[in-house]
What does this fold into?
Amino acid sequence: MALLKGLKITSQTLGAYLLAFLVFVLLLLPYFIFGKDVFLPVSDNMDSNLAWYKMLKDQGKIFTSWNTPVQGMMVELPRFSFPSGYNLEMLLYALFPFFKAYILNKALIIIIAFFSFRYWLRGQELVLRNTYLEVFLCLLWASLAFYPHRGISIAALPAVIQVFTLLLNGKASKNSILILLGYAIYSMFALAALYFMLGILIWLIFACIIERKIHLPALLAWCFLWGLFLLQDFQLIRGYFLNPDFVSHRGDFTYDFGIWIQHYPWDFFSSGDQNGVHYTPVYMVFLIGLCLYSGYKKLMSKKGLLFLVLLLGISMLLSILSITGNVNLIGRIVPQLGSLNLLRFEYWIPFLMVASIINFWSKLKFRWSEYVITVLLMINIFAYQYEWRYGINTHLQVLEQKVPTYKSYFAEAQFDQLTGFLGDGSEQALFINFNLPPAVATFNGLKTFDGYVQVYGKAHKQKVFQVIEAELEKDQSLKAHFLNWGNKCYFQNAQYPDDYFMYKWREEEPLSEPDFDYQYLKKELQVDYILSALPVVSDQMNLLKVFENEHSAWRIHLYELK
It folds into this structure.
């Protein structure tokens, strides 16, 4: 393996890599301590991806044709609405028990991040005092809180950058192709890797212009990697771009409201993004401090400065796009790419930040490294790794926010009670959800008219809108959220807008008279039941039963439409 090449076995090496192994175990320890009672990120994880994967696994549809119907969210969706099955992450879910597959994916991200950074670090020709320092620096990168799905695209980025650096310098080997191949079969193209591919292309074109030379091997390698990604996502390409009968809800995307506007440069580099990499603001403070101190000592690193300028430049450009409402600028030029979110170029920032730190620091002979790296590692692990942060918080109660565990979120025992109450008809019944994520019901095998997916038909969105239109008029920002984005095709209400964290430990008033078109909901959409996280005050439905379970995060109210 290219990433493992050059690993000399000495007593110092064994000691350093034993340390790395211990940190690796520490990162995974919450899974062994708590089991399914471990705390996992909710947003864009348990409320979406894990439910998708469970539906695909249970129905045996991870590896099927692009238009195979998948039952569950939004009643039934074509296979291309979900992530490609031809991806190492999905292969884990196909081969292993569901929860174990999640742990294995987490472990692989950590391992790949470590050796990817080691591969890049060894290409920088930095003077490292010993193997321990090298391992510590790699652990800094590997212990960052990478998002569990698109995170591998960022975790392995250093190795990809080093491959293209070698290609530009005419020093690449056959191992470079293996690294690119591995990157392609594990990364999520549309959600993350696309933005790295575009960034690398800009880099290659710039290098060709500056050096007045066509770097053919690098350009061919880029085309090779691009081709691999297209092959991996052929289901999405076939269903979304080459299917004249499909009209996507993504055609309505604008990104000129809500969470995509009014971002200032520091919003992009202060603490990262939980959907990419989440890290402490201490890193940026440390980086600026190193830069200033290096300048004072006249030991400025040109590479470190270059990485810092790129980091700040990306942050500035993204801020301008956000403030001026041009996040979907490419979509205005190419309408088919209207949902391309340019703010995702922020996924470059963590690598640029760490690379800049290391280059500045190397000029200072890595002063204070033993203390600084130890502190940063502890922050990475115990404050920013979601599993540790909330596991510790259950005992120390430093954070006010209380979050569910994997087991309590999906509440399988509670849903066994619910389906047992409904009898055999529950499998064919159609549900909707009030302030309860549809992911919970679909994870447990139920069919819902609502759901959270990235690609689905616009006609389905319009049906849901017909039901909730009057309710959305009470909150224009919620209306824009639904109409101009709509990945969450939920039966939203203005009393608790987009609040799908309505856990049973929250003390909230009942949901009062949501202004929905109940006749259309029952007669046209043929919805049978409503699952609500709150009691509902309405003369349009009857309460059948309230389900509670000590191991569940929810108090589920089952209603039937009159």
In short: The longest strand covers residues 541-547. The chain has a mean pLDDT of 93. The chain is about 55% helix and 10% strand.
